[in-house]
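Task 17 of the worksheet. Students: predict the tertiary structure of the chain below and write it out as structure tokens. Keep your answer in the requested format; marks are given for formatting as well as content.
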Amino acid sequence: MGTVRNLRPETLDVRPRPLRAVLFDWDGTLVNSAEVSFRCYARVFGAYGIAFDRTRFAATYSPNWYQTYEAVALPREHWSAADARWVELYGEERAELLPGASDGLARLRAAGLATALVTSGSRPRIDRELSALGAAGLFECVVCCEDVRSRKPDPAPLLFALERIEVEPSAAAYVGDSPEDIFMARAAGAFALGIEGGFPNREALRASKPDLLAADLSAALDALLTLGNSVSP
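Model answer:
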């Protein structure tokens, strides 16, 4: 695993050659949604008499929220109602793009790289947030949980997006803040870049051994541009 603090792309065992596209996770990677998610989970689970504090959030967090439901022992028959309530509560909140996200995506596109979004989030929520944050035009393709039957860490969502933008996995990088993101990228054959985001999974992210680990989004974007400039067609 490399780090952006000592970035030497020519020494990496795995790297996109040539880099043609960068695909991103949404929650925690481009948008600061960790606190919003925690508050929504706490209110949803509280309605079912399930205590949910930050320690439990750290112990049960997954970008696949059904794994969180299972971890807190929410009965399966309540999952659909919990989904609807979570979305309702989340709609009352406002998550913001992380600093430098819009400018960074514009820099990637100016460098000739395609950009796409691959998220476990639902289409209505993601479309609403993209519109509210002025980010709808930053991606050539947006893949949400409804678009494929499998979810991270299965490679299907990433492969679906790559097919839509007509880029081979070996020429793509995927950026995410969870082990599931790294496993998905690796299974698809793409370069895996991890970001230490706001969700409570940093140790698990490190343990997943991304090809490159960035301390934040700004460092990740700088690393991607360096990678793009360091490999030849």
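Marker's comment: Residues 96 and 109 are 21 Å apart (CA to CA). The chain has two domains: 2-32+96-230, 34-91.
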